[in-house]
Amino acid sequence: MSADEWPRYLPVGDAALLVEFGDQIDEAVNRRVHALAQVLAQDTVPGLGEAVPTYRSLLVHYNPLRWDYQGVVSLVREQVQRAKVIPLAEPRLVAIPTVYGGEFGPDLEYVAEHSGLSVQEVVCIHCGAVYRVFMMGFTPGFPYLGSVDKAIATPRLATPRTRVPAGSVGIAGLQTGIYPIESPGGWQIIGRTPLTLFDPHQDPPTLLSAGDQVRFVPISEAEFERLSRGH
User: What is the tens place of the pLDDT at every residue in 1-21?
Assistant: First the structure.
């Protein structure tokens, strides 16, 4: 599709509207998604519910007893135009201390071998970039971060692990991410952070939000243990 054909408006059941801004993972596309989400969040519209951003689209929930589909489309079309001229809020930059390799990053050596680089080169490339939180998902608080330098992009595991520890930092293709809770997973695990990414007792419960920026900071195992104890 040409740029003139976006966005597209699609019904999702009888209580949600999907607004698509593109068909690929792209930072400019993702910025349009978050710009619309920001504009919708600024105005409290009765009957309009949560707006959930993804890489390239925004899912807008609404109350079908107060809105019909065409009414929501008309409203959101107006907000899309507003979003073009309202600047996005300055993104928050969050530093993620990370110990790389060893028991904390069992796939780091494979990523290095796959990339034709040394382990240290992989670490330097991974922590040398600032990543955008394109979206949240998979498990509560899981950030999808991009884009990884093509030099260290590595496919997912052929067979996912049944248990990936909380805080594990992984690579999957051009994406990197952090497992907020222990769960199954198929990403290449290269390190781990002692930070808590999801705590249902906190407000907000997640450390990161879509639209944030992330920078990984290498730390030693001793620092990991100290930060884990909260000292």
Answer: 445 689 999 999 999 999 999
Same domain, 163 and 112: yes
- 109 and 69 assigned to the same domain: no
Determine the longest span between alpha carbons in the chain, in angstroms. Answer: 59
Domain hosting residue 47, numbered range? 3-85
E strands along 165-206, which residues? 168-172, 175-178, 183-185, 188-192
Asked if residue 174 lies in contact with residue 126, where contact means CB atoms within 8 angstroms, the answer is no
What is 68-119 written as a DSSP string? Answer: -HHHHHHHHHHHHHHHHHSPPPPPPEEEEEEEESGGG-TTHHHHHHHHTS-H
Mean pLDDT for the stretch of residues 10-35? 93
In the predicted model, what is the mean pLDDT of the chain? 94
If one counts every other C-beta atom within 10 angstroms of the C-beta of residue 227, the result is 15
Q: Which of 31, 52, 85 is the last residue of a domain?
A: 85
> Do the Cβ atoms of 6 and 84 come closer than 8 Å?
no
Question: Angle at which helices 108-115 and 119-127 pack, to 10 degrees?
Answer: 100
Q: Is the pLDDT of residue 231 over 60?
A: no
Asked if residue 130 and residue 62 are part of one domain, the reply reads: no
CATH number at residue 221: 2.40.100.10
Three-state DSSP state, 27 = helix
CA distance 50 to 145: 22
